[in-house]
């Protein structure tokens, strides 16, 4: 949807756009669906492309709908088939698709309303961002590392908090990606839209024991 809207806006004049009310209303419809709890594709996993015009239009409409509600962005990162979507489903009662192999493609975001009992967290909604796994066998090759670095930088830069899900006991396979990721993040406040550079992201590494998707997360580390 985002790419269709972006293509339409890019080639049509304002006069032509005003005649296509159906396409012009796509961002508002998508924002209403997000408000209702439906996931929205943030990144096209096949093209590794984020339709910025379309996504920005949807988020602008979402801001109008939510008003002055406070939103906390939670993103997740991890190796393929490490249980990222399963963990988010268990934490928030969502229904992200889960299966072995490359199940999630790209990135999806879903809005979750915070219950009254949790309002002491000082935000009203959580925007959950689910992403495809790193080290995907389907993308094996020289470009795989570059793809992983880009995805990790995008995901970490997006969230107020990033969960880094590690399958097994050896986090070494994630260290290079995280190192490249943080070196690629902007260091000045102007690049971050005036936001402070300290505390923009605080990854929490969840170590998951090998086994079934329902196995417990044993340890957590803050970096």
Topology order in helix (H) and strand (E) letters: HHHHEHEHEEHEHEE
- Let me know the largest β-sheet: 7 strands, mixed
Structural class: alpha/beta
> Can you name the CATH architecture of the largest domain?
3-Layer(aba) Sandwich
Helix content: 25-40%
- Extended strand count: 7
Mean pLDDT: 73
GO molecular function: GTP binding
InterPro entries: G_VLIG_dom, P-loop_NTPase
Protein name: VLIG-type G domain-containing protein
Organism: Hemibagrus guttatus
Structural overview:
There is one protein chain. The chain has 223 residues and is an alpha/beta fold. The protein has two domains: 1-34 and 50-66, no CATH class; 69-186 and 196-222, Rossmann fold. Helix content is 38%, strand content 21%. The protein is built from eight helices and seven strands; from the N terminus they run ααααβαβαββαβαββ. A seven-stranded mixed β-sheet has the order 1-3-4-2-5-6-7, with helices on both faces. Strand 6 and strand 7 form a beta hairpin. The radius of gyration is 18 Å and the shape is globular. The two termini are 36 Å apart. Residues 188-194, 196-201 and 209-223 have low confidence and may be disordered.
Quick overview of this protein structure:
The protein is an alpha/beta fold and 223 residues long.
Descriptors for this entry?
globular; seven-stranded mixed β-sheet; Rossmann fold; disordered C terminus; alpha/beta; 223 residues
């Amino acid at each position: 949807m985002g790419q269709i809207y972006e293509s339409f806006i890019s080639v049509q004049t304002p006069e032509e756009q005003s005649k296509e009310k159906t396409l012009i209303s796509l961002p508002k419809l998508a924002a209403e669906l997000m408000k209702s709890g439906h996931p929205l594709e943030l990144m096209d996993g096949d093209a590794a492309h984020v339709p910025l015009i379309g996504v920005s239009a949807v988020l602008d409409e979402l801001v109008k709908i939510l008003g002055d509600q406070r939103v906390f962005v939670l993103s997740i990162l991890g190796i393929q088939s490490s249980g990222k979507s399963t963990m988010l489903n268990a934490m928030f009662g969502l229904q992200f698709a889960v299966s072995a192999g490359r199940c999630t493609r790209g990135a999806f975001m879903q809005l979750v309303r915070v219950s009254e009992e949790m309002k002491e967290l000082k935000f009203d909604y959580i925007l959950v961002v689910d992403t495809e796994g790193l080290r995907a066998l389907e993308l094996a090759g020289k470009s795989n590392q570059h793809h992983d670095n880009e995805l990790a930088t995008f995901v970490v830069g997006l969230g107020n908090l990033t969960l880094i899900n590690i399958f097994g006991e050896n986090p070494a396979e994630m260290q290079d990606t995280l190192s490249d990721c943080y070196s690629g993040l902007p260091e000045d406040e102007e690049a971050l839209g005036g936001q402070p550079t300290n505390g923009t992201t605080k990854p929490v590494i969840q170590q998951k024991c090998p086994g079934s998707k329902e196995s417990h997360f044993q340890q957590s580390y803050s970096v």
